[in-house]
Amino acid sequence: MAPRIRTIGSYATQEKYSVNFFGEELTVTVTPDPSVIGQWIHDVLSNNRFSSHPLVVGVGVQWTPPAYPDYTFVGVWNSQDARKLERSRHQLEIDDLLDLRKYVEDSSGRRSMRGCSFEVIVEECLGYRGVRLDREISMSDWSAYELCDDQILQASIDAHVCFKLGVKYRLWKV
């Protein structure tokens, strides 16, 4: 089943979408405004303050040249994403950065997937077939005032998959 997206809210500082990813409904916020991101972080921390379970958050970054606003989506897929976040106008800092490719294993638990593609890791580790990051979308204009649905879907799936892998492999213990 191909992921589907629909708009659920449009505001001055952000757009809200619902993404259906293999039957899971994800709520996605798209914003160039650092205060929206700050509020999201505050809300997540506040809503989870009494949880005994470690907080795992996936952050995906779609990069534009410094002259343009950055759109940030709430895994860090690789260390380049963390450096981009630190250099962006949002100036988000990542404490415990993990390149997920170094920690995931095949379904038998015997083979490292360090050199595998996003698509192979997602299928082998999470069972989602056909999920990939499209290079053309990755290289598209992320500075556009309105992102297209394909951009929002790709960034959303990237962040969600990284979150799922972080939880599955209990990466807070690394």
TrEMBL record:
Keywords: Hydrolase, Nuclease. GO terms for molecular function: 3'-5' exonuclease activity; nucleic acid binding. Transmembrane segments: none annotated. Signal peptide: none annotated. It comes from the Eukaryota. SUPFAM superfamilies: Ribonuclease H-like (SSF53098). The keyword Hydrolase applies. This is 3'-5' exonuclease domain-containing protein. It comes from Arabidopsis thaliana (Mouse-ear cress).
